[in-house]
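Let us begin with a simple case.
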Amino acid sequence: MTSPSPPTALTAWLDGIGILGPGLSNWTAARPVLSGIVPYRPGPVAAPPLASLPPNERRRIGLQVRIALVVAQEAIAHACLDAKQVAAVFSSSSADGDNCHAICQVLASEDRHLSPTRFHNSVHNAAAGYWGIASGAMTPATVLCAYDGSFGAGLLEALAQVGAANSGALLVCYEAPNPEPLHAKRPLPAAFGTALTLMPRRSPQSLALLRVTLLEAPGDRLTHPDLEALRCQIPSARSLPLLRALARGNPHRVILEYLEPLGLAVEILPCS
């Protein structure tokens, strides 16, 4: 009897990182926190202005789209890339809750005329559309939703695209809190977003080689209770064990929670 074949690994070079969440304003600020050099102090999430969007578009977007675009721009800038060079994978566990709530309020009122802006912001690919406007990118954009497994699904999709197309992919994962009564059914305590620029070949900007395999195993936990709470409660924050390992800069293997009972084993081989 032959032994089963080992699982196929998806690989890519990581060239850029973006992050925005409570007490984590960008990768430069988050790296010493996640590595344990600087204490973690939770704080409000403030998305900086998006000068890359025309003023009319800036006024139309909500917090969720702003989070997505801010981390995407950081990851692209970190990798010293032009956004027009890479495909994009956007992954979120839900649509814009504030926008959906506003639509439901209108539909429940006597005046049931919906704003066209509200309608086009309600679709799940809204962030990808605004990314195309902000960056000028005309490369393919994939938009996913896998509920609590959205970060893992996005990572698998982006890595598969890198391997199949032999070209770069930008992974963007993001969430924002829902208003009541949606919050009671789907509580997301804070806004959070992360982005990874993944490439098929090593470059001077490469931070690490990632090898990812699917397996049945529980995800790694974080020792800091506040960061662990983010990981448990916000799907895009399931990236935190990976980001912590990258911040420490040592060869490491982490297991990211995916869709029970599955996890993603990520082998990290830093470039320096």
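The second case is a distinct protein. As before, the sequence precedes its structure tokens.
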Amino acid sequence: MIDILKSTYIITGASSGIGRSLSYKLAKKNANIVLASRNIDELDQIVKKINDSGGSAFSIQTDITNINACKTLITETIDKFGQIDYLILNAGLSMWSRLDEINDITHFEKLLDVNYTGAVNCVHSALNELEKTRGSIIAITTAQAMIGFSKATAYSASKHALQGFLEGLDMEMQGRINIINVYLGWIKGTNLRANAIGPDGKKIGNKHHKHSNKAIDLEDCTNRIINGIMKRKKAIYVPYYLKFIPFAKLFLRNWLFNKISRTIDSEEDK
């Protein structure tokens, strides 16, 4: 098990949800926290709470789709803390729509820019520093990185792209950097679904964002993530049964597809 003490974490998408929760909890474990997001006002409030309670954090307004902004994020982190031990790729954008409902297919580009290209920008900018510390890249991803979901074709595609990138990078690094994938199911207490864009490219808001009783609570989710990081797991599944998706996809494909379709339809009806 690793020691979080005085490790330096960069967390993208840190202004709300999972990123915010991880920031508070890791700071309580005496880690240095660098919070990155486009929403600087929210970041500054989180940083103030952390620092006022004796923690160590600072914020950098960052648009991860801009490579220069990502380079600045890394440079300022090194200037402040001298090293980077963990890069948590948490920023994400979702889309909730059938493909045949979308008039402007360029909406797909928004998801790829954030979920794939933005993550690649962060990784490329931080790679040399992470090699120096034999650090870790932690991708907060989803079951949809393993299997496509109906009404989420764009989101599934962007997460598959990131999955392939990280698998290839893991081979290239040959253990010099640890790569951890965090596969999430439905999580209560985040704004991911409310902030998802619909077929017109606009946020869907509160429509379709209620979760089933099987959804995992946000605080439980981030506790499991931190526990997995400390144990240096290669994959973290929240809930645990997501680990069976690759097996079911291979041997029980029709059953799995029908199960997912029924689940998506039931979520739509809420």
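The chain has a mean pLDDT of 91. The domain at 8-268 is CATH 3.40.50.720 (Rossmann fold).
Keep these points in mind for the review questions at the end of the chapter.
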